[in-house]
Amino acid sequence: MARQPRVQTKLFVLDTNVLMHDPTSLYHFDEHDIFLPMATLEELDHNKKGMSEVARNARQASRFLDEIVRDYEQEIEAGIPLAPHSHNGATGRLFLQTRTMNGELPATLPSSKVDNQILGVVLSLCQQHPKRQVILVSKDINMRIKARALGFAAEDYFNDKVLEDTDILYSGVRELPPDFWETHGKGVESWADGGRNYYRVHGPLCHGFLVNEFLYQEQNRPLYVLVKEVKGDSAVLETVKDYTHQKNNVWGITARNREQNFALNVLMNPNVDFVTLLGQAGTGKTLLTLAAGLMQTLEHKTYSEIIMTRVTVPVGEDIGFLPGTEEEKMTPWMGALEDNLDVLNRTDDEAGDWGRAATQDLIRSRIKIKSLNFMRGRTFINKYLIIDEAQNLTPKQMKTLITRAGPGTKVVCLGNIAQIDTPYLTEGSSGLTYVVDRFKGWSHNGHVTLQRGERSRLADYAAEAL
Question: Where in the chain is the domain with CATH 3.40.50.300?
């Protein structure tokens, strides 16, 4: 006999796309119960074949379900406790559909469609448990709309969302208040080391500072500093290098605004192993990253080569299979790389056509283009790894890529979270948002959100007006 449901807990009915998006979602509903319709299990079975991320997740979800069901010897209809399989992270129960459940759906919703079968199960559960909150969880917007039209609760799967509102995402840059030195300047210590000035300040704002966060003040004498250390109500600030000046140019490129200057400071810092640059189109993410990579690979010899990769998600229709090697297949996706190399190759006016051609050949010999599909199991040693269009990666894919970094490797992630092309990924659940939030405050991490477009007046106006 089925146990009496606890009044305070909810019953969540999971759509297949939730399990295929995050197989561990089974353990992310805390004290609440989960119900899996038979149609969900059928869809998992249909999607298990292949090497795609979806197929891998479907197989992993099936393995989790097998673990849960395999050792349970009592009546399955009463629900299987999830606590033993989740280190007590989930204290609810898992219910599987064990008999036919057909809620009275409108005749316009054909029962042959899997989505409608799941809606029928939810309707039936609502009738069976009138005092209990039954909620459908689905990543499919139309499924949620249909559920609400039929009069029952439906939600998106929120657990993988790092932030509900991306406006509060860490930007890496903070403006100091005009009275900063009045409130924090008492007993300030200052010293110079290696061509940089350091200040130890004390005050209430220091608690909120993060290591490697950029601070600025735009007054009569502008101040641009980097937080090097935070201890209680004191912080050590380091003046940043001025990359806007031609004498500090990086492969012929100088910073055109404050944020670009900050970005070059972290890109050119060998102690920073992981850099994330966010910004809309035309803010200079790829150009600055490539310029810093070429400088440190060809001039400073810090890295042996540059490796560039990106997610191959087409904006329009896919162009089908492409001939050639891995690099040749990736070439159509690397238009941004070609465009930026053209700009960087024109920075040396004195080289002439022959000199530029020779430089171009040297540059191309040091830049390798790799596909994400072949990254598992690899280790990159002393490489400068650029992950372009990183907003299209899931947190799991991002982890797979970043953990490829061996000794002496720098990883730079570039992206614009307003341009996500992957289905089921949002600004809040993107892998790029995830790493920006998780890495903030680490002493070997640098992050800057670039604000101003520097592409052209047309591009800037289009970004605002369209």
Answer: 249-465
